[in-house]
Amino acid sequence: MFNTLEEIAKRDREKARLEGKVEGKLEGERELIIEILNQSFGEDFDKSLEEKIRKANEETINPIKKNILSITLEELKNLVK
Length: 81
Prior knowledge:
The chain is an all-alpha fold. It has one domain. Helices cover 80% and strands 0% of the residues. The protein is built from four helices and no strands. The radius of gyration is 18 Å and the shape is elongated.
């Protein structure tokens, strides 16, 4: 029984570590996207869009990331509704 509990704890720690890496990577991507979009749109890229991107999940971030060089402000607003 001790081995089983130890294995469960080890598995849970590994899962938490991996989830932390994924979230950390996503957070870095969000910040880079914000920097690029801020440069692209200037004053039109307001704080509300910035906050929506910071809270966006991976499904929302991926199309923004994929189209970062050609995305329009309207497309961006539609993605982060």
